[in-house]
Write a structure and sequence with these properties.
six-stranded antiparallel beta sheet, 8% strand, elongated
Length: 367
Amino acid sequence: MGTAGKRGLITAAVTVVCAITVLAAPGTAFASPTPPAAPTPAPTPSGSPVPPPAPPNKDLEAVREKLESLYHDAAVATDAYNAAEEKAQKQSTQLVQLAKKIVEGQRRLDALKDRAGAAARQQYRSGGLPPEAHLMLSDDPGQFLDGAGRVLQGQRATKAMLDEMTRTQQDLKLYAADAAAHWRELEANRKEKEAARKKVQKQIAEAEKLESRLETQEKERLAELERQAAQKAQTAWLDTGVLKDIQGKASEQGAKAVSYATAQMGKPYEWGAEGPRTFDCSGLTSQAWAHAGRPIPRTSQEQWRQLRHVDVKDMRPGDLVIYFDDASHVGMYIGDGTIVHAPRPGRTVTVTGAGSMPILGVVRPDA
């Protein structure tokens, strides 16, 4: 199938997805178009109750903006949680390595002390005189010369052993100090993670409470407002003509990453999750690239900070699109102006327009 035909099929598929699902792209920069006026209710028979009027769209628009704000704050807190978790894992690994070094150093020190003890016991058995004294008491010149060589060798060996004991003791002190510092860092990261966890839970609970107050009809209209906001932003982005400049083809690793990410479609969003059953936004992108053989940072903010930046017009499938000024969301570009991403709590991994949220920039893991 030609490129134009493939693009047409993917564009059509995205249109269908937009029409039947809530893409739920978080963001406060969206502006919702004025929806058509509600139809006038048909006359009802005399005595029949008249249904209460639906809340005005401006009220639901305020709800939509509030939900976006809450879920955005939850995304920021999720990134903080993931960063603290990643740091804690590194600290734990380093502590284990230091513990191994301390154990090995202590064994070496014990062995050196045993050697020193054996030398002391040998001296005791020889009458308590050092080798030099025994040498001076010898009347045999040959024995004297041989003994002088052995004494010199013994002195060198003893000095080397004492030097090694000193170095080992110093190493143990350094390892212990490093372990104490890493432990303090680990505790600090655990506290940061716990604070971030509480903030995530608070933001999500507030959003769910707000949504729970809506009637079924209001939820449907809210979903429509979300669709309209995402479609309007995507249309405005496409109207810039950016898509005609995006011609890049996926690298071998990029194609593998795209294949993994798209295979997760339909799986629920869960903050802090890296699969295989649930994902958050950066959990999906980091795992996709890990499966492609290229480990990348865990959080969207670190992905933005550490990976190579490329122009939007140069992006290719597999590149990561970073969203919002604080780099709090990320999706993977899959071609034809679309991304696959894990949107937010209550949603599943899905495909949406790459321009449906404010783009901060694009990064390339396999640059």
